[in-house]
Every structure is written in C-alpha cells, then in structure tokens.
C-alpha cells in the first residue's frame, strides 16, 4: 500500500551525500515503498537540506525490524553519554 | 503493420502556465490514435513509469507522462525528486488538475490525435486519475489502486491529500478501477463505497478486485508484483481504452 504516512522534523547536523558533506536542516521519516531495498515496505529516512537542492539528501530504507533496532541503539547510546556532554 | 514508435522528453505547459517536463511516447504511423495521460506513482517520474508510457505507444496510443515534481526538483533523479516533493507536502490537487489538463491539451493537439484522451494512474496517481476525470473533460479513466478517494488520511499527516468521493457527480468519463483484495489503501470496503457512489450518480464504471494481490501489483520491479493480476488488469485496460479511446 501507499501509506502516505510521513513525519517531518527539523534537524541540526551534517550528512554525507553523493557530492560530499553538507549541513542538514530537516528529516522526513515515512513507512512506504522503498526505491531500492528488497521489501514491499520499509521505514525510510531522508536527511535533507532543501536550500541546497533535491540532491542534498542522505537516504536510508530499513526493514521495520532494523528501524526499531536503530531507534533503540540511538536511545541507548544517548542514555550512556557521560553527564555534562549533552 | 507499421509499428515504429518514438519516445522522448518534452516540455509542456502545465498548471499556471508553468513549463513542466513530460515523457511522450507515441506511434509513428499516420493515426488517428487515441491518447493517454499516464500519472506516475508517488516514488516519481521514474524508469518504470516511462516504460508504461512506451507500452501504451506500442499498443497504438500516444502516451504522455507529466513530471509532477518538475517544479520542486527540476533535473533531479526521480528518487530525490520524490523525497523533496514528499517533504513539501506532495502535489496539491489543483496543480495536478492543471498539469494533467496541460498534458491532455498537448495530446489533443498532435496531428495524429483522434481527439480522445484518457487518463491512468497508479498508487497516488490512481487517486489523481479519478481527480482529473472529475475535474476535466476526458474520454476514459483508469484508477489503479488509488488510496484516499474514499477514507480520511491519518490526522497530522503533512501531505495534502483528502477524500474526493464527493466529486463523483462530476466524473466526465467511464471509470475502470483495478484493485488488490489484500490492499488496505484502498481497502475493499473503500472501493465498495466508491462503487456505491458511482452507481448512485449513474456513472459508467467497472471495478475488478484481484484475490492474492495487494497494493502495486502492476509494479514489475517490486516484490508486490503479481503477474496473474497484472496480466488480467492489462487485459481490462486494453479493452477499456479500446472501447472508449481507439478509432
């Protein structure tokens, strides 16, 4: 199915795309058909900088299981950061 | 039979007088030929959609696929363009109608045109095919598993997509609907609701829902591909366009 489900957030940081590193300003997260991954639906994340054009994009397409594991890993990593660094 | 064809990228005048990119595939014979506007799916104006346009040309129709993401992402690769369009909320309905109207006008202006233009769309394009057929004077329409013709999208969704079943009364041409029984967007209940409204409005339509198929069963390059449903579906499309567009 074509879910249309999309979350959009503002982000600060950098990503490395086809033309090298660039600053990021937003990210979209959606569960829909992948372009490349071999699954009917994947959790897709686009890290974007619209100011630099459509190709300023870092994309990932993850199976739902991988996406949940990634979310857990991010939370676990942040939770273990020593006090004072965040 | 002379079966040469030509396929190329062109510029067409779309909504608001904007020049947008389009992919035109047409038979090179003298005609007259019917025409089809091909509306690409949400992943964009990609290689597989262009292949569909060429399939119509090989079958004797002039087919034109407007790049609905031209404005957001001129010259970008289809996946980057689709990501950009999604981040900006998708294609506004009004703009879609203007772009399809521009594509239909271009097709009618071809010297080989028989004056008849149909529309077909897949996935989000299925909804847009219905929208175009309710907003423009066309001769035939095909909706391949378009979601949210009926049914309200989840709250908070940033995409500008809403139900359009209330437009059924304005449908200008016969509608063929091709759906998968295992699809949830649109679900069989939703297509049944659309069918009820089409009947109530006295419209000419034909719906087929294929068992063992879900969303995107026509997509030959995706795991959702279901050859049996797709082959059956293509047969229904040739019959539909043969009846309403050919000659």
Task: Provide a compact summary of the structure.
Chain A is of the alpha+beta class and 86 residues long.
- The dominant shape of chain B is globular
CA-to-CA gap between the ends of chain B? 16 Å
The number of helical elements of chain A comes to: 1
* SSE arrangement of chain B, N to C: EEEHEHHEHEEHEH
Q: Low-confidence segments of chain A, ≥5 residues, pLDDT <50? A: none
Across the major sheet of chain A, the strand order is 1-2-3-4
Could you give the order of strands across the largest sheet of chain B? Answer: 1-2-4-3-5-6-7-8
What does the overall shape of chain A look like? globular
From the helix content, strand content and strand pairing of chain A, which structural class follows?
alpha+beta
Regions with little confidence, pLDDT below 50 for 5+ residues of chain B: none
The profile of the biggest β sheet of chain B is: 8 strands, mixed
The number of domains of chain A is 1
Largest contact between chains: A-B, 24 and 37 residues
The share of residues in extended strands of chain B comes to: 15-25%
What does this structure look like?
The complex is a heterodimer of chains A (86) and B (247). The mean pLDDT of chain A is 92. The radius of gyration of chain A is 14 Å and the shape is globular. Chain A has one helix at 64-79, and strands spanning 6-17, 20-32, 42-48, 57-62. Chain A has one domain (6-79). Chain A has 86 residues and is of the alpha+beta class. Chain A is 19% helix and 44% strand. The termini of chain A are far apart. Chain A contains one helix and four strands, in the order ββββα. With 247 residues, chain B is an alpha/beta fold. Chain B has a single domain (5-244), classed as Rossmann fold (3-Layer(aba) Sandwich), CATH 3.40.50. Chain B has six helices and eight strands; from the N terminus they run E-E-E-H-E-H-H-E-H-E-E-H-E-H. Chain B has helices at 47-58, 78-87, 93-109, 124-135, 188-200, 227-244; strands at 5-13, 19-27, 33-39, 61-66, 113-122, 140-144, 175-180, 205-210. Chain B has an eight-stranded mixed β-sheet with strand order 1-2-4-3-5-6-7-8, with helices on both faces. In chain B, a hairpin with a 5-residue loop joins strand 1 (5-13) and strand 2. In chain B, helix 3 packs across helix 4 (124-135). The longest helix of chain B has 18 residues, at 227-244. The model of chain B has no long low-confidence stretch (mean pLDDT 94). Classes of the chains: A alpha+beta (86), B alpha/beta (247).
């Amino acid at each position: 199915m074509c879910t249309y489900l999309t979350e959009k957030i503002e982000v600060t940081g950098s990503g490395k795309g086809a033309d090298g590193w660039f600053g990021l300003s937003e990210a979209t997260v959606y569960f829909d058909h992948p372009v490349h991954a071999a699954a009917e639906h994947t959790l897709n994340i686009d890290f974007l900088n619209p100011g630099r054009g459509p190709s300023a994009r870092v994309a990932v397409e993850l199976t739902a299981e991988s996406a949940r594991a990634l979310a857990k890993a991010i939370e676990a990593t942040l939770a273990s950061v020593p006090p004072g660094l965040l | 039979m002379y079966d040469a064809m030509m396929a190329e990228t062109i510029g067409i005048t779309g909504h608001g007088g904007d020049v947008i990119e389009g992919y035109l595939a047409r038979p090179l014979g003298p005609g007259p030929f019917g025409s089809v506007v091909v509306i690409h799916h949400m992943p964009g104006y990609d290689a597989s959609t262009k292949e569909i346009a060429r399939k119509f040309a090989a079958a004797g129709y002039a087919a034109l696929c407007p790049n609905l993401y031209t404005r957001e992402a001129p010259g970008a690769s289809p996946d980057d363009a689709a990501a950009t369009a999604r981040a900006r909320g998708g294609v506004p309905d009004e703009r879609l109608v203007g772009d399809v109207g521009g594509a239909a006008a271009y097709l009618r202006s071809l010297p080989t045109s028989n004056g008849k233009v149909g529309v077909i769309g897949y996935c989000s394009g299925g909804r847009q095919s219905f929208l175009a057929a309710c907003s423009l004077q066309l001769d035939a329409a095909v909706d391949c598993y378009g979601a949210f013709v009926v049914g309200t999208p989840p709250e908070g969704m940033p995409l500008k997509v809403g139900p359009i079943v209330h437009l059924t009364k304005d449908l200008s041409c016969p509608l063929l609907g091709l759906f998968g029984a295992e699809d949830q967007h649109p679900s069989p209940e939703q297509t049944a609701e659309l069918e009820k409204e089409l009947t109530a409005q006295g419209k000419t339509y034909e719906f087929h829902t294929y068992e063992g198929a879900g969303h995107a069963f026509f997509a030959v390059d995706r795991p959702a591909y279901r050859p049996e449903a797709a082959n059956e579906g293509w047969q229904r499309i040739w019959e539909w366009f043969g009846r309403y567009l050919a000659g």
